[in-house]
Amino acid sequence: MPSTQRNVAEIEDARPTESPPGSDYQEKEPVREALDDDPVYSYAEQRKIIHRLDRRLITIAGIIYMNSLMDRSNLPNAAIAGMLVDLGMAQGFRYSTVALVFFVTYTIFQPPATILTRKIGPRPFLSGICLAWGATMVGFGFVQDWVVLIPLRLLLGLFEAGYFPGVVYLISTWYSRFDMQKRYAAFYCLGLVASGCSGILAFGLQQMDGLGGLEGWRWIFIIFGLMTVAAAILGWIYLVDFPDVAVDKHHWRFLSRQEIEFVIRRINKDRDDARRERWNFRSWLSAGADWKIWMFALQFFSLTTQAYALAYFLPIILRDNMGFSIGESQMLTAPPYAGAAIVMFICAWVGDKYRIRGPLLFFSATLGLIGLPLLGWAGSPAARYIGCFLTCACANGGIPTVMAYQANNIRGQWKRAFASATLVGFGGIGGIAGSTVFRSQDAPTYRPGVWACIVCNIVTVTIVIINSIIFKRQNSRAEKGEVVLEEDPNFRYTI
């Protein structure tokens, strides 16, 4: 329990004069006037508060996102498990069409998602749409005509559209700027590893072929859907609210009112935008005038194009390009995602410790510029498989970095809401592109798709260079008092 201090001098003494290396937990100075009953937390107590928040918010949000990624990307596993043959989808563009239509509704309905998350509340809204898409997934298991998959995928995109922008926005309201990338990495990593392991799980579920008179690929959809329904129930019980709303609620048990107030003070000291803002459509929409938001969104598009291309086609590429069997192709999807998770956490640790973002995106894009030529032109299957590792690390390892890059360089509740929706909306457009870049007529080398992904990495590198030049110049001008950045004289851009 925190000790109660009696004056400002004692408050200052209660805090370490310096944070341990790489840490952002401590409050170095009081954010408001100290009161007799104002609790002040030691560094160890602050860590415990933030870690309790991590266990509640990041874990539950990550579990739901894990199901989200598995549900949208288990199509290729079902495809090679017999769905293509049973539903006659091997002809023309049928498979690509089914994969693509998901992103039509997924992209269109993302912009209002952050608004609905705010207005309805994270727990009922996010867990409710999770329940809806879980039920939709179960329906996939009973389809008799491939055409029926199209409205089901449209429904899946509609329900999933709200989750990612809503939860990215929610996480950004609870953490200071240089705590975010590790949290985004942990959240995204749960989904990433699940995407890799979904092939292994799908291979196991495929062995249920004939059970209940259903083919193995149908059980893949049914079991994944039931897992999502269970995740929705977990979210309804454990998802957290926004800090400015939670502080006034009395049913919370994992953080006290005083501990939530500490989190709010910490955020206000970092970027001064934890206060609740009255809903204003003009304020929300006017954020679109900020050029930075579109630069971050374009980088996110470049990364998600590659990430979704791998999610939808990696098992097929392993089978067609490298000659592996169906079972081997499903099993061998996991190692590249495990490698990407390692790269992701290294980037997150370095980024938060040294307070950098752009150079890490430069690094991850470079991995792709090495891996993609290997995938497209290397002679041996082993070298092409290494190309899969590097490309997967590039795309998936860079996504949390872009999320933190954007969150670190904007201020304001509704601007943050608009930016989150825009970022993820461009991710949906990347999904549309990613579902079409590896065309069946380009098998087995898929070189046009490889070239498309190379261009995406060149775009990412170019934007990093442009941002870095402008941010350094603006920070220098702010230090001289020539400009005020993000309406806060103390704010500086993160390079």
TrEMBL record:
Domain (Major facilitator superfamily (MFS) profile) ranges: 57-475
> Which topology term describes how it sits in the membrane?
Multi-pass membrane protein
From the Swiss-Prot or TrEMBL record, state where the protein is found: Membrane
Task: Cite the GO molecular-function annotations of the record.
Answer: transmembrane transporter activity
Q: Which GO terms describe its cellular component?
A: membrane
InterPro entries, from UniProt? MFS, MFS_dom, MFS_trans_sf
Keywords recorded for this protein, A-Z: Membrane, Transmembrane, Transmembrane helix, Transport
Q: What is this protein called?
A: Major facilitator superfamily (MFS) profile domain-containing protein
| UniProt organism field | Cladophialophora chaetospira
The taxonomy runs: Eukaryota, Fungi, Dikarya, Ascomycota, Pezizomycotina
